[in-house]
Amino acid sequence: MSLDVPTALLERAESGTVTDAEFVDCVRLSLPYAWEIVSGVVADLGLSEAEMADHEIPPPSEAERGQLLRALASDAIRGGLERHFGVKLAFQNCHRVAAFRPSAVDGARYQAFISPRGQLLNQSPELRDC
Question: This protein's superkingdom (predicted)?
Answer without folding.
Answer: Bacteria
